[in-house]
Amino acid sequence: MNKYYKYIFILLNFILSIKTVKSIYSNSPPDFSFLESTAQTFLSYSYASYCDFDDIKNWTCPTCTHSDVEDFKIVNAVYNSTTDTQAFVGYIGNEVIVAFRGSMDIQSWITNFQFLQIDYPLFPSAKVHSGFYDSWSSVRDQVKQSIDSALTLCGVECNEIKVTGHSLGAALATLAIAEIQGWYTIPSTMYNFGSPRVGDTVFAEYFNKIQPNVIRVTYEQDLVPHVPPEGVMGYHHIPTEVYFSTNTTYKTCDDSGEDPTCSDSTVGYSIYDHLHYFGMHCCCR
């Protein structure tokens, strides 16, 4: 058994040994219904964020040619070399789109995953993953400036900001929209895919109070939504989860963020599933 699979075996046994505690807080659902076609479009944006920086800036990347995103108007591509964090901002129709890139080496990222937390500055009684927060903080100003520019270029018809990301990018999207919703008076929403847990139960409850308009998509046996393990250092998913048990079969989960009949019902051992949401191979292709 190689080092990687030995790690996965240990992690899965650790997950299964934990006695999880469900939140008794009553969360609010989003004010819109899940649409599979919309989710697939935002998966395309999420996958495009993995492409070459210059190709994103020119919107000539392989994923940029997908029919559901080819009319997107890129405003800026964002990168921080210290944290290796990449994102892009632009607009289409009446929507400003913000997308965050996930890890470029999924297996190494999982193998080296740490659970360290910091007090969440916007709500200090909550705790969030320190690495995720550092990565988001490193591009915050660039993202804010890019959204401002997109709103100016888009004009008065732009009346919504949508945020997305896959894997690590989903975690960054979560931290981003928690702040974006306070920067502007227009509504903001999020579709993300294969997100790890971002913070503790207090953070999940606080997040839902300020931003309930979130769809967190999970897929089959995807490993990443199972890390950090639920309950370890209080880690807890934000709602609302939509769980795909196959490419075409899904359910909208309960308001806890940790519905035991959704992704939590699986062992969650598959990196393949993490890279094949809706049967679309991640990432830039």
TrEMBL record:
Record field: transmembrane: none
A single BP term in Gene Ontology: lipid metabolic process
Signal peptide: 1-23
InterPro entries xref list: AB_hydrolase_fold, Fungal_lipase-type, Sec_MonoDiacylglyc_Lipase
The keyword Secreted is assigned to this record: no
Keyword terms of this UniProt record: Signal
Cross-referenced SUPFAM superfamilies: alpha/beta-Hydrolases (SSF53474)
Domain called Fungal lipase-type: residue spans: 97-230
Superkingdom of source: Eukaryota
Keyword Signal appears in the UniProt entry: yes
Family matches, as Pfam families: Lipase_3
PANTHER family: ALPHA/BETA-HYDROLASES SUPERFAMILY PROTEIN, FUNGAL LIPASE-LIKE DOMAIN-CONTAINING PROTEIN
Protein name (Swiss-Prot/TrEMBL): Fungal lipase-type domain-containing protein
Organism of this sequence: Dictyostelium firmibasis
